[in-house]
Amino acid sequence: VQVVESGGGLVQAGGSLRLSCAASGITISREVMAWFRQEPGKEREGVARIGERDTYYADSVRGRFTISKDNAENTLYLQMSSLTPEDTAMYYCAADFVGGDSLTSRNYKLWGQGTQVTVSA
Questions:
Q1: Do 8 and 108 touch, CB atoms closer than 8 A?
Q2: What parts of the chain have a pLDDT lower than 50?
């Protein structure tokens, strides 16, 4: 059972990136899944989460980021646009939600290794 992120990279401010999270051993259509991000020395921050169809976003990304699932590919996505240097972080995919606040990291048990997003000014 694992989730593997990809798609990070270096982009200029105002640009876009799409992150992917390929899942194996779980069926993502049934899962609450989320994207988190973390800067060095800071706590992991919830960015967006998705249930079967419902979505929720942190205020800092609402209107710029879109979380989605491709159930046929068993893959979670995060489309990011209008990126700013403040979006620079390691981005993590999370699954195996145990309940509670869905943008709190301790409420997920399955994590990927992360993919780095760097936004230059």
A1: no
A2: none
Identity at 13, one-letter amino acid code: A
From 31, 17, 12, 112, select the one nearest 74 (Cα to Cα). 31
How far apart CA 56 and CA 33 sit, in angstroms, is 11
Q: What span, in angstroms and rounded, lies between the C-alpha atoms of 67 and 64?
A: 10
- Is 85 exposed, middle or buried, given 0-12, 13-18 or 19+ CB atoms closer than 10 A? exposed
Give ∠ CA 60-65-71 in degrees, rounded to 5.
135
Distance CA 107, CA 69 (A): 20
Question: Contact 13/120 with Cβ under 8 angstroms?
Answer: yes
pLDDT at residue 53 in the model: 85
Specify which residues 65 forms β-bridges with.
80
